[in-house]
Amino acid sequence: MHARTEFEESRPAGSKRKLRWIAGLFVAFLAAFTLYSNTLFSLTLPKATTTVPQSGSLEHSFQGSAIAEPAATVDLTNPAGWKVAKVNVKTGDKVHKGQILVEYDGSEAEQQVKDEEAALQKLNLALPQLQAAYIEAAHGDDSAALQDARTALESAKIDIQTQKEHLQALQKQLSANGEIAAPFDGTVLEVHAVEDLAVAAGGGPDIRLAGAQQGFRIALTVPEDVASLLNVGDPVDAVVSGKQPRTIQGTVAAIEDDAPAEGGPSAGDDSGAGGSTAAANRVTVTLQDPKLKGGERIQLQWSLSSGQDAMLLPNEAVHRDDAGAYVWTVQTRSGPLGNAFYAARTSVTVVDSNEYQTEIGDGLFEQDEVVSWSSEPLLDGSRIRL
Question: What residue intervals traverse the membrane (predicted)?
Fold first, then answer.
């Protein structure tokens, strides 16, 4: 009887332990299920990678090439259109200032000068007779005859002066157009003059001459963001292409504010990648090297920066729409199951950019975490997983 009573008393205590064990197991199951559900839910969130702004100087790069051309050229043509009597040079010849390059047949002009000289001589021969007639009329009483004699004499003097001036102009033209002389030391680039022809072959100038002292030049179409970092007078390292490339020195000679209206490159301009293509400048570089002959392909490469520290982000982290530029910053919120991450649209001011990075002016702090990539488009306030 006593043993049964102890057994009966022990049953409620065992039941309580069992209930507590079941309750604990249920709570653990709920916690595990909640954690598992939260894990499954987080896997459905957009996946994102992040970065933080870097401090540095934005660099702009450019690589291009162009054909070396003489820095100073002149086209020489006979304006009178006379036939060519003799061509004294050929393409590639070195010439000195004053050297006769082409001689012209001025026989027709010479004959015209002779005819005008004869006409002047006739006028001079008639002058004494008119002077004598004037003197005779001056001693007479006929005022009308005197006036006629005076008019004839003055008219003859005017005719003589006019004829002299006309003759001098013809003689000057004969002297100027009889030949073409080199205006400076240089190299003959092209010869279009042909003996016994008045019109140059191909319609070009009779002679195209390059100055020897001015060296050579190249002109390239350079993105505006690169050109803005250049200054006239800046030294340039240029590479002459060929089997044995070599480096020569150049100088930035000109930076035109706007590219040519047609937008195309100049002859031989093979401007390469680098910088923005939204706007471009024409940059001229002069080259001084005794081995250059013209026609060589010259390569240039620039890597330039303003030298000022700035806040930089990868280009893929910066977005734009009608409202302006913005980035997705990461906001962290604490919860019972750990931290949760949310994307927040943050407007920024873009100062500059290159092919890889964007310079941010306002809107961010250096410690801000910025989304650089996401598996799907984000919305302001949307939860993400990192």
Answer: 21-45
